[in-house]
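Review session, final week

We close the course with one last complete record, chosen because it touches almost every idea we covered. It is chorismate mutase, a protein from Fibrella forsythiae with 366 residues. Go through it on your own first, then we will talk.
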Amino acid sequence: MKPDLAVEPLDSWIQTDGKPLIIAGPCSAETEEQLVETARQLAALGQVHAIRAGVWKPRTRPGSFEGMGEPALAWIQRAKAETGLPFAVEVATPQHIELALKYGVDILWVGARTTVNPFNVQEIADALKGVDVPVLVKNPVNPDLALWVGAFERIAGAGITKLGAIHRGFSTGEASKYRNIPMWQMAIELRTMFPQLPIIGDPSHMAGKRAYLNELAQMAMDLNYDGLIVESHIDPDKAWSDAAQQLTPAAFGEMLEHLHIRQLESSDREFQSAMEQIRVKIDSVDRQLVEHLAARMSLVEKLAEYKRDNNVSMFQPDRWKEILESRKQLGAKLNLYPELVEEIYKIIHMESIRKQTEVINSAPVA
Ligand code: PEP
Ligand code: MN
């Protein structure tokens, strides 16, 4: 099945003036005062396009703060009225969706603990049929791209076209300085499958700690993400959930000031023509690379025929060792990482063994 999604561009549902989409707000709505004041300070930065808050909190263990539920939706209405900004909330059940929409929530997101479960995602998709609302889907807790893709397919199947991905990192059991390991290549793979799907970085849930927010937000920007969702709280240390990773609105404003946002393309004529010239050269070098690979394979094929006709074994370990070492040394002299040359030669060697096996098991040409 060739995956495809009908996705509307981000600027069809939120105005960002060509800048990355910035969503910020507390992990959880705790009190009316905390929510409205955080929203007010964030709006005052002039750089935030939407406010977030958790109203129902999916907790790993029972007994932790599980969110204020419906009463918090009324505070959201006030925060919206005071700031004029749209509001995003996590939904995990059809009831959450019904309530969020009833109170005028503008953007829904599916949390990492929900994306892992196709039953839950399908229930959410069914509840979204006939509704026109933007839905952002966080990556599943575990690094399984198919689960993430499946969630988009189910929600798109319900007719939702205002879609976006939130990359919040993965829990892998491996030791890491981050709470959730980013595994950037997962998001890049998603982008390759669905180039039109906006991707928003969530440095807060990747980091787990304030100290790592900057570097993760910068990395997301360097990878040309379409935006960021960051947790911000007027008094982070006293937050009822995710205290260690939240920033005051002022600290968040400072972080935004220091973010370096690169342009995807430059319209500068000279720059474009320089790029074009280099690309033409790269295309030509790549062509030679592939032609050389093909030439090498045809030599291997000849070698295999000699081995077969003289009954010599296919794999000669000393020769392979010598190839690997001499190519790595050559690479090092030319400023290439030895690991790069080693990995490439391992792949070439595997293919060469496959080809030789094929030749040796074929009958000699009469
Ligand atoms: C959150 O956004 O507060 C949250 C619960 O995140 P995640 O689903 O990424 O754990
Ligand atoms: Mn959180």
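Two points worth writing down before the exam:
The CA atoms of residues 110 and 137 lie 5 Å apart.
The mean pLDDT is 94.
Good luck, everyone.
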